[in-house]
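Translate structure to sequence.
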């Protein structure tokens, strides 16, 4: 597959390209601060449904001055209660394709990471923030409530009490505070986020597919299970992973000092 191949079939609010074995998905509504409308969410669905088989990791970032200012609020003004429930459930379904999809996703955040934008970032596995990034959940001040899975994902990152404060008061956190709170894993200078995200995705892509799958799908379920069930699930997954042919080959290379230096560290 040629380097820098584009991925088609997406709305104008998204753009995607392939670099080797990683795909880079860009939110492309800078004039709307990358607010998420239905077309964008359905486009994300299409992107993951048509992801080339050779892709081993995805990088998500935003065009312009912001990652995403969240839900395009014009989408709420014409919905009945039942329609709003289905709208929220569709976000859950699509965002699950980040969290529980085929490959890990690295989010690169800058500027506004607000409301649905923070919900989107929380569904990713690794988050890189530039120093311009700021985080908020202003739904409470607007008379609405999070609907993209934030009630489930964000408390797992920062705790229920802190999320409650953000929603009740409209409190905003800066990039350094976000790093300390686990809203991001890495903090880089402005303009350096995408390069860092690609670097991390390339590192992730070198892992075995089975190990990445276990980390994405099994680890969070172990964390949610009882201790005894978690131990058993861990034992089973460890046995399956280490018995994989690719894992056995890598272990032999490591023991016989044939593995690349990065894999011996």
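Result:
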């Amino acid at each position: 597959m040629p380097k820098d191949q584009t991925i088609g079939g997406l709305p104008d609010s998204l753009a995607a390209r392939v670099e080797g074995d990683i795909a880079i998905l860009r939110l492309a509504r800078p004039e709307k601060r990358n607010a998420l409308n239905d077309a964008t969410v359905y486009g994300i669905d299409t992107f993951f449904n048509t992801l080339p088989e050779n892709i081993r990791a995805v990088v998500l970032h935003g065009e312009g001055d912001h990652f995403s200012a969240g839900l395009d609020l014009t989408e709420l003004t014409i919905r009945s209660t039942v329609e709003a429930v289905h709208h929220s459930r569709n976000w859950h379904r699509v965002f699950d394709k980040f969290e529980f999809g085929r490959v890990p996703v690295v989010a690169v955040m800058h500027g506004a990471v607000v409301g649905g934008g923070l919900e989107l970032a929380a569904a990713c596995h690794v988050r890189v923030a530039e120093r311009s990034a700021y985080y908020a959940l202003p739904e409470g001040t607007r008379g609405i409530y999070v609907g993209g899975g934030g009630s489930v994902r964000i408390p797992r990152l920062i705790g229920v009490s802190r999320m409650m404060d953000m929603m009740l008061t409209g409190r905003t956190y800066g990039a350094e505070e976000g790093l300390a709170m686990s809203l991001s894993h890495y903090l880089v200078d402005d303009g350096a986020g995408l390069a860092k995200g690609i670097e991390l995705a390339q590192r992730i892509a070198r892992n075995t597919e089975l190990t990445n799958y276990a980390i994405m799908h099994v680890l969070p379920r172990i964390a949610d299970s009882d201790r005894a069930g978690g131990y058993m699930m861990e034992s089973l997954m460890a046995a399956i992973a280490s018995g994989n042919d690719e894992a056995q080959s890598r272990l032999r290379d490591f023991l016989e000092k044939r593995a690349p230096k990065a894999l011996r560290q």
